Amino acid sequence: MFGVVFPNRSFPMDISTFAQIDTFHWVLDMNTFVGEAYDQVRELCIFLLNGFTLPPEKALAVYVQSPGSPFVFCGAVTVARPSAVLTLAWPEPGAGGALQLTADAQPLSAKIGVSVEDLASLPSLDVAAEKRIEGLAMKVGENLFNFMQSFCGVDGSKLVVPMDILDRWFKKFQERAKRDPEYLKGFAL
Fold it and tell me: N or C: more exposed end of the chain, with fewer CB within 10 A?
């Protein structure tokens, strides 16, 4: 059905490495894989195996769970996108409530969950890429705001800027990017 690889950390692993919870849910206990250093595992490559047909309206969704926290969605694969390298954004341990350890309690561990879900119900196929784009837009917006501030005047509670400010900013932005190829790398996350 599916396989996973932890880049620079593992050989390909198939579905048998995961504990099957029910027909559509699987869990990998990270204690058996890396022990308590689960948060050092930052990426997962998930792929559909040849011959497996997932209905077009379905996806294999990937979630991560730190000890004592709820599962957090990371991304998904579909028949149209049969493989993906996903960033594993581990939540803070205990983020879901108080951690309680008793003598008879099983040790809490981090987990990776995979489930078959309706594609329409998922927020994005790659959450990390969406956050990088959002961060990039914020940095560019901040650059524009700082540029505009240097030309603005105050009229009561309003900032007043020249009408051609966007053109001037964009021209300056493009010229600097042409002169210094490293400039745009400063906007990348």
Answer: C
Sheet holding 25-29, edge to edge: 19-22, 25-29, 111-118, 58-65, 72-77
Residue 68 token pair = 């004592």
Q: How high is the pLDDT of residue 22? A: 92
Average pLDDT over residues 78-85: 89
Question: Mind listing the pLDDT tens digit for each residue in 110-157?
Answer: 899 999 999 888 876 666 666 667 777 788 888 888 888 787 777 777
Greatest CA separation found in the chain? 70
Residues 167 and 175: their CA atoms lie apart, in Å, by: 12
Instruction: Provide the token pair at 129.
Output: 């890429």
- How far is the C-alpha of 189 from the C-alpha of 184, rounded, in Å? 11
